[in-house]
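re: that chain from earlier
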Amino acid sequence: QVQLVESGGGRVQPGGSLRLSCAVSGRAVSGAFMGWFRQAPGKEREFVARITWSGYTYYADSVKGRFAISRDNANNTVYLQMNSLNLEDTAVYYCGSYSPQTGRFDYWGQGTQVTVSS
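^ sequence. v structure.
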């Protein structure tokens, strides 16, 4: 059974930084296609960033240049470094694991709240 547990959310002022962690069990991140998504109040869940099996990264335009996704194979953890946060980044952030068999993100964490406010 694959399990994902996010942590690192919190409240931060505009311009600040946070690093989110996604601890994975049941699937090695070194060979996994992982992603971060977010959902703001009243909005659909949206894609934020992903990292492929080969380490290739891709970002939503809204976070490009400010966020960075990475992984630590030894600790089986995926990170999302978020810099220059603004009010529009406020959301619940979710980590997801993609399955090539199903062609979709089939495992999700419980989410971690990020609130940007002054």
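The chain has a mean pLDDT of 96.
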